[in-house]
Amino acid sequence: MTIAELTKVFASFNKVNVLIVGDLMLDSYYWGDVSRISPEAPVPIVSVSKKDNRLGGAGNVAKNIQAMGATPFLCGIIGKDDNGDKLLNIMKANKLPVQGIVRVDDRPTTTKTRIISSNHHIVRIDEEIDEAISTADSHKLFTQIEKFILAGKVGVIIFEDYDKGVISPALIDKITALAKKHKVPTVVDPKKKNFLAYRHVTLFKPNLKELKEGLGVDLNAKDMDTLRREVEVLRKKQEIDIALITLSEYGVYVNSDKEKKLIPAHIRNISDVSGAGDTVVSLAALCCAVGLSPENMAFLSNLAGGQVCEKSGVVPVNKEQLLEEAKQYL
Q: Is the pTM of this model over 0.90?
C-alpha cells in the first residue's frame, strides 16, 4: 500500500455507516481527595471535587468510529431510569443517533461508577442485570436493527458483546442471516458466553484471554504453532472469514484463507491499556467496510490500539495522528 492509497483509505472512512449492536453502559466517575479514615468503618472518606459521566461499553466503540470520520449507529438496551436519561443525553451531545436504543422497565441501565483519588482507583460500583433480555425486548431490538439494514446504508455491523444479556444466540443468527443476505460484513468483539454462537461472520476479534476462555484451552502468545493451529480450527469450524487475535505486547495475529501472519507490536510508552480493544475492533470494522486486505487491516488496527495505550484513560483514536504514524511504515 502506497502513501497515496493509504490517504485515500482514510478519506473513504468518512462515507462509512457502522451499525454497532451490543451492551451499552454508562461510565460514571467521581474524583476527589482522601484526608482521613471514616469513624464509622476502616474505609477512606473521599471528598469529591469532580464528577463526570461518559459512554462506556459499545458506546466507546461508537466514539472511535466517530473519531475516524465514520457514522456510528448504536443499537442496544437501556433502562427507563436516570442513568438511561444521562446516557441518551451524552449521545445527543456527541451527535450520536439514538433511534436504535430500546428502553425497558425491568432492568437498570448498566452503570459502572469509579471513585478515584490521587490517580488511585479506590472502588468500582456496578449497577446491572446480566441475565438475558426477554424475547419481546430482543424482538424490539431486532426490529430497530432490521430497519437500519433494510435502509441499505449500513457498511459494516459490529457485535460488541460484554456478556450483559443483550446479545443472544438467536439474535446473532437473525442479524448474521440478514447481513449476509444484504452483503454487509459482520465483525465480532466476543466474550465467553456467546463465544461459539458466532458463525458465518466476516471478522472475529477476541484477545488472547477471551480466546482461551472461549475455547477452554491453554494458549501462550509465545507458542505461535499452537495458537495458529487452534485459531485455524476455530475459523474453519465456525466458518469465519478472518480471525484477528490481539496479543497485547506481542501484537496481533491475523488468520484468513490467504494470510496467516503475526503483526508485532510497536515499541510504546504504555500509559493505560483501557479501551484499546474497542479501538482495534473499530479500525478493523472500518477496514472491512472499505475492502482492505486482512494484513493491512491488522496493521492499521494494531497501530491504532497501540496509540491509545499511550494515553491515560479511555480515549478514542486520533485519526490524523494514526495516518501520520502509518505513513512512516510504508
A: yes
Closest CA to 104 of 70, 73, 139, 74: 139
Q: Do β-strands 203-204 and 24-37 pair in parallel, antiparallel, or remain unpaired?
A: unpaired
The residue type found at 76 is G
In CATH, 3-25+56-109+130-327 is 3.20.20.140: no
Measure the CA–CA gap between 72 and 19, rounded to whole angstroms.
6
User: Quick check: 280 and 309 in contact, CB under 8 A?
Assistant: no
The beta strand positions in the chain, using DSSP E, are 17-22, 24-37, 44-57, 71-79, 101-104, 111-117, 120-127, 156-160, 186-189, 203-204, 242-246, 252-255, 260-263
Q: Which of 166, 122, 132 is nearest to 33 (CA)?
A: 122
C-alpha cell at 136: 419481546
Give the contacts of 55 (CB within 8 A, at least 6 positions apart). 24, 25, 26, 27, 62, 63, 87, 90, 91, 94, 96
Active-site annotation holder among 27, 161, 189, 278: 278
272-290 tens-digit pLDDT:
345 578 889 999 999 999 9
- For residue 161, give the DSSP letter: -
Task: Output the CA torsion 287→270→273→188 (10° steps).
Answer: 20
Buried/exposed 37-53: b ≥16 CB within 10 Å, e otherwise: eeeeeeebebeeeeeeb
Strand order in the sheet with 203-204: 101-104, 71-79, 17-22, 156-160, 186-189, 203-204, 242-246, 252-255, 260-263
263 strand-pairing partners? 252
Q: The cell 443499537 sits on which residue?
A: 75
31: left (phi over 0), alpha (psi -120 to 50) or beta: beta
Asked if 278 is an active-site residue, the reply is: yes
Tens-digit pLDDT profile for residues 113-165: 999 998 788 999 999 999 999 999 999 999 999 999 999 889 999 999 999 99
